[in-house]
Design goal:
The protein is mainly α. The chain contains 4 helices and no strands. This is Na+/H+ antiporter subunit G.
């Protein structure tokens, strides 16, 4: 049987999970709504990361209260996301920019390369 937690723990956990779902929904709508790849990169990079932060914080709060001690295993998720998401986003952007400049893609809005007038 699952131990019941006090309401003052369950309410913030529920709010953090709702916030996480809202961020994920906003990111999904942004991916569907935007037309170019460069615009579509930002919703997943920003909103999904915020959604993961909120879900991880809810996990930390819930399991810390359940185990009556500090449960910090979910911080590994946050640390990995903080390190990998910016690197992945930059690599995807550079690849798309290279493909657009070499004519392998049909993106409309591509900034000129540095050093070209």
């Amino acid at each position: 049987m699952i131990n019941a937690l006090p309401w003052w723990i369950e309410v913030p956990v529920g709010l953090l999970l709702l916030l996480s779902g809202g961020f994920a929904l906003a990111a999904a709508i942004g991916v569907l709504r935007f037309k170019s790849f460069f615009m579509r990169m930002h919703p997943p990079a920003l909103a999904f990361t915020l959604a993961s932060w909120a879900a991880s914080l809810a996990t930390i709060l819930y399991f810390s209260a359940l185990e009556q001690g500090l449960a910090l295993q979910a911080w590994l998720i946050i640390i990995c996301l903080s390190l990998t998401v910016p690197v992945t986003t930059i690599m995807l952007a550079r690849t798309a920019l290279f493909r657009s400049r070499t004519g392998q893609s049909n993106e409309d809005v591509v900034p000129p390369a540095l050093g070209q007038p």
